[in-house]
Design brief:
The chain is 74% helix and 0% strand. By secondary structure, it is mainly α. The protein has one domain.
Length: 189
């Protein structure tokens, strides 16, 4: 589903709710309530995870800059990279916390998160920092998507607009896969 079709689906849902005599399936209040209750948790997970991953990438970049001073061939024997490894380990802790928050609040497993410690401490300076920041930005974009599509999905279920609900659910899943990757676990009931 393209991005232009999703707002059209939301407008169609509003028209469907307003139009008298339009045939609808039976309302599904449990699915509507589940979508509505999950929305704030998903949005919070996206925001915490996204901001944390961007922060971790920036902090790891600072650690990489410090590594240029304390882990080069001249200073390594004396300094042993103590300062840079400390900052990079702190960046890993921020990344791990943010990733875990994202997974916990979304109730999903993100296969490539959390990143391993070696991605912060054992890599060449500045390697992989852009990927971490990009993952964070994708999660922040997903927060906006989840914030508007969750209530629309709940309304579609409550109105009995099964086709619209399925289209919105599929669009949400496609956006999630684009932002975070596929969920390696089977779908939850």
């Amino acid at each position: 589903m393209t991005r232009t079709r999703e707002p059209l689906a939301a407008l169609l849902l509003l028209a469907l709710l307003a139009a008298p005599g339009v045939p609808r399936a039976a309302p599904d209040p449990l699915a509507g309530a589940a979508a509505l209750l999950a929305t704030p948790f998903e949005v919070a997970g996206d925001l915490l995870g996204g901001a944390g991953l961007i922060g971790a990438a920036l902090l790891a970049g600072v650690g990489d800059a410090v590594a240029l001073a304390d882990r080069n061939p001249v200073t390594e024997p004396l300094l042993r990279g103590a300062a840079s490894r400390t900052v990079q380990t702190l960046a890993f802790a921020v990344s791990w916390s943010a990733s875990s928050s994202l997974e916990l609040l979304r109730r999903e497993d993100v296969e490539r998160l959390p990143e391993p410690l070696g991605a912060y401490v054992e890599v060449a300076p500045f390697a992989g920092r852009f990927d971490t920041a990009r993952s964070g930005a994708s999660a922040l974009g997903l927060a906006l998507r989840d914030a508007w599509s969750g209530p629309a999905l709940a309304a579609a279920h409550l109105a009995g607009a099964r086709g619209t609900a399925e289209a919105l659910a599929q669009g949400r899943n496609e956006a999630r896969v684009r932002a975070l990757g596929p969920d390696p676990l089977p779908p939850r009931l």
